[in-house]
Design a protein that fits this description.
Blueprint: H1 8-14, H2 18-38, H3 46-60, H4 72-90, H5 101-112, H6 117-139, H7 144-155, H8 160-167, H9 171-188
Helix pairs in contact: 2-3, 2-6, 3-4, 4-5, 5-6, 6-9, 7-8, 7-9, 8-9
Amino acid sequence: MNETSLSLLDTLRTAPDDAVWSRMVQVYGPLIRSWLARNNVDPTDVDDVVQDVFAVVLRRLPEFDRQPRTGAFRSWLKSITTHCLNDYWRSPRTRRSATGGSEWQQALQELADPESGLSKLWNVEHDRHVTEYLLRIVEGMFEPATWTAFKRLSIEGIPAQAVAAELGVTVNAIYIAKSRVLAKLREIGAGLID
């Protein structure tokens, strides 16, 4: 991951290249695929719909403004995914039988409603997915002892005193490790999870 202070979204706007778009697809592709599968998109069509979502993101990203709303990108991506899913279901290529046809419309309406349970599930899954991705990226940027201190304290919830004793360092060193890792997570994840 680029070590500059620019977030992935800012980099996509200001200096997009193949590596940055590849990172975007790597971060969000699996999330979008899981939502398409959940909404019964034919497995042979998933790649096409994912490509449709990213084509819209590419085209519309210059218009996107995440300030000052929390979760703006998450909501924006959900909206694009919902519209592409709607286009998929309405497309002649879909050949979906009429049986239960209103179920997909109801699911799309729920996704469009920011207060629905389905939208809230999208938000939770988005944040979990991106957080796990960021943690995998950031882990390699730190010495194993620093990462272990952060993980034991922040992820596993072990008290700082116990982690310090386990690693043979001071409690202050544990909090410094946590602070360093969190700072890097905030830097790299800026705008992805707000």
